[in-house]
């Protein structure tokens, strides 16, 4: 076999069985080898940002890596924004980045670039397989590195000659790491500090926001410790039966106002909260003045074990609070808003659905009703780079084809990775796409005022609005292969969304708000 065969065989043996790809000439040996390894599912993406975002969605749901196939440095660079989000989500991903043949690099061909330097900022591991005999071993290293803990994208550079030359190396199995439990000293210190505090909180992030960890955090809530989560979480249960911690406010001054008087903040699976952006005369760190902090479980540690041990140490009840099932009594009517859309989604979203949230300023309307909807999970925008809602849905649907996936998108955000609609259609994925169309980068209008820059004048407004011309979503979606409908009233959306939930396959709904 050649190096490409060795790579695919090792990936499949290590349960990496989905490849989100946008290949070029340097990757043709890998592409050809796919015919000899049918266990690997290849998914073509028309833009690398779709491929990387899809790998993120897959990894968040499958709890194992998919691989991407990217064409040299420029291909990697096209996908970097959603790899930034994946790094912040600690998602296991194996990037396979094609490169020129090792002997060709010296000639600085037009596509030549410093791939290790490009990949390093958003990778937990970067190596180049400069010999076909290196490929299998490095592939196993990449898989192991992607798991961390806490995990993230690992980037394997594959020169063309390492792919086409023969090798006799065998499949190499990755050693999947295990999260260590927090030390007994950390548990004891947290318990002692919590008993002494007048108004303590515990802040959850990462693994501490998964279902099994939230069950333990609910016990702490029942014992009198207020529980918060990070503002944006990679994967979190929501709806009936789930414990719903308070969410750290997005705007820093609101967060600090809510935390006023807190004298102890304990971290589980996360670190100290900071403002998303700096603003004139406003603090960066969102810990009240005089508040003590300590870490129960670092990101790389087992937060489930830490939270359970802490709850036991405090004598907490065996179970804590959870959300009731409370659906809107009646279908919404009249003017369409993010909140009427949210009500319809809550009414019809099936149990076990996956919500990929890139709705930006419209997201609160869906979250409000979703708190007591049927049990579902939410994948959030962890790194702040908009344009992930559509690709996340591609990957989540590939990872869990039996579950309904709902992709929520601001109109500006959706245009970053609109090519994902084609992949949804081609793969016939069970995804309902909702685009909130307000013809504006509304979040930027808000932020412009908050930074003290003042109101937008005629020149500035040209960079904040999406009108003139307004985006014509229905022809766009249909041109990329999806059935599509535009809704302008609450009644129209109610009917369209109910219909989408009653059938399988991709559907596009524009919600004009």
Protein described:
The protein is α/β, with parallel strands linked by helices and 513 residues long. It folds into 3 domains: 162 residues, Rossmann fold (3-Layer(aba) Sandwich), CATH 3.40.50; 130 residues, TPP-binding domain (Rossmann fold, 3-Layer(aba) Sandwich), CATH 3.40.50; 175 residues, Rossmann fold (3-Layer(aba) Sandwich), CATH 3.40.50. Helices cover 37% and strands 18% of the residues. The chain has a 7-stranded mixed beta sheet, sandwiched between helices. The chain has a 6-stranded parallel beta sheet with strand order 2-1-3-4-6-5, sandwiched between helices. Helix 14 links the parallel strand 13 and strand 14. Helix 10 runs parallel beside helix 12.
Mean pLDDT reading: 97
Count of spatially separate domains = 3
Q: Report the principal-axis shape.
A: globular
**CATH architecture heading of the largest domain:** 3-Layer(aba) Sandwich
**How much strand content do the residues show?**
15-25%
The helix content is: 25-40%
Q: Would you identify the regions where 5 or more consecutive residues have pLDDT less than 50? A: none
Task: Look at the helices and sheets and give the structural class.
Answer: alpha/beta
Give the spatial strand order of the biggest sheet: 9-14-13-15-16-18-17
How far from one another are the termini?
56 Å
Radius of gyration: 24 Å
């Amino acid at each position: 076999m050649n190096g490409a065969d060795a790579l695919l065989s090792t990936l499949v043996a290590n349960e990496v069985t989905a490849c989100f790809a946008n290949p070029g000439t340097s990757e043709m040996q890998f592409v050809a080898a796919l015919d000899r390894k049918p266990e690997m599912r290849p998914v073509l993406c028309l833009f690398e940002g779709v491929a990387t975002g899809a790998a993120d969605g897959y990894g968040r749901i499958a709890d194992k890596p998919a691989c991407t196939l990217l064409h040299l440095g420029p291909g990697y660079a096209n996908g970097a924004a959603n790899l930034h989000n994946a790094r912040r989500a600690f998602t296991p991903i194996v990037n396979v980045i094609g490169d020129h043949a090792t002997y060709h690099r010296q000639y600085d061909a037009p596509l030549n670039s410093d791939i290790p330097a490009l990949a390093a900022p958003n990778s937990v591991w970067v190596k180049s397989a400069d010999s076909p005999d290196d490929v299998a071993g490095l592939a196993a290293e990449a898989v192991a590195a992607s798991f961390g803990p806490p995990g993230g994208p690992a980037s394997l550079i594959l020169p063309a000659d390492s792919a086409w030359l023969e090798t006799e190396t065998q499949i190499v199995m990755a050693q999947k790491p295990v999260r260590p439990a927090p030390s007994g000293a950390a548990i004891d210190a947290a318990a002692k500090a919590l008993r002494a505090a007048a108004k303590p909180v515990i802040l959850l992030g990462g693994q501490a926001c998964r279902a099994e960890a939230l069950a333990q955090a609910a016990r702490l809530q029942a014992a009198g410790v207020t529980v918060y989560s990070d503002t944006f979480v990679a994967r979190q249960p929501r709806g009936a039966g789930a414990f719903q911690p308070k969410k750290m406010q997005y705007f820093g001054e609101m967060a600090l106002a809510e935390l006023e008087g807190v004298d102890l903040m304990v971290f589980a699976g996360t670190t100290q909260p900071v403002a998303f952006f700096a603003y004139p005369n406003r603090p960066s760190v969102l810990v009240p003045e005089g508040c003590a902090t300590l870490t129960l479980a670092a990101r790389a540690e087992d937060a489930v074990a830490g939270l359970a041990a802490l709850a036991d140490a405090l004598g907490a009840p065996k179970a804590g609070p959870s959300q009731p099932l409370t659906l809107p009594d009646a279908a919404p009517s009249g003017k369409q808003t993010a909140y009427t859309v949210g009500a319809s989604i809550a009414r019809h979203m099936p149990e076990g659905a996956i919500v990929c949230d890139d709705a930006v300023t419209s997201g609160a309307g869906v979250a409000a009703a979703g708190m007591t909807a049927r049990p579902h999970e939410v994948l959030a925008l962890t790194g702040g780079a908009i344009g992930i809602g559509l690709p996340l849905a591609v990957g989540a649907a590939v990872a869990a084809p039996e579950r309904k996936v709902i992709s929520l998108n601001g109109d500006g955000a959706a245009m970053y990775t609109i090519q994902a609609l084609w992949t949804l259609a081609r793969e016939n994925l069970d995804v309902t796409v909702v685009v909130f169309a307000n013809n504006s980068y509304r979040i930027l209008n808000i932020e412009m005022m908050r930074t003290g820059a003042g109101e937008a004048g005629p020149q500035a407004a040209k960079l904040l609005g999406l009108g003139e011309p307004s985006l014509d979503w229905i022809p766009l979606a249909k041109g990329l292969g999806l059935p599509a409908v535009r809704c302008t009233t609450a009644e129209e959306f109610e009917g369209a969304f109910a219909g989408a939930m009653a059938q399988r396959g991709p559907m596009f709904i524009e919600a004009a708000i």
